[in-house]
């Protein structure tokens, strides 16, 4: 473990602080992408959507299966979210053009509200209350990944909507699970260093972004 890692006294509060900073880095990356990403790349938004969705699902699977280190520098989370924001520009630009900025902002606010409500519900439950969802969510996420790959070749709008609805449900479940896991680890005294919070910040960030992307896709397909 990094000996320079900062001690933490309130893990949940710190995790939400670092999550907010991570989302801010994502929007900074988006702003840079908007300024510097060439228009012809933005024109490939549909392809980039597919790539980013697959990448997000793969990262979610990898992190949930414990393939990522349990402790690493928060700077890696910030770097990832910053780069993700740059990659996010063509997609968000496409949705803004299709839906209009007002609807996109409303969906962002709705995502924040849903995320906040789920986090609040889980935080009020005893530590570990939703940990029993872990295996079901992991299997569901794996199936979602496979069906998403299949639908790339089928190209069904109906299936795309259904997968996005299922995606919102799965990652909403993961918000409940992740907060419950954080409380459980806090009770066990396993979250004493800043670097030990990084994986949880990353997981919550992935939950947030996947819910946001799925809600955007649902709205775009229903417009």
TrEMBL record:
Chain segments annotated as coiled-coil in the UniProt record: none
Cellular location(s): Membrane
Membrane topology: Multi-pass membrane protein
Alphabetized InterPro entries for the sequence: Bax_inhibitor_1-related
Regions crossing the membrane: 15-34, 40-63, 75-96, 102-121, 133-153, 159-177, 197-219
Keyword Cell wall biogenesis/degradation among record annotations: no
Family statement: Belongs to the BI1 family.
Name used for this protein in its record: BAX inhibitor (BI)-1/YccA family protein
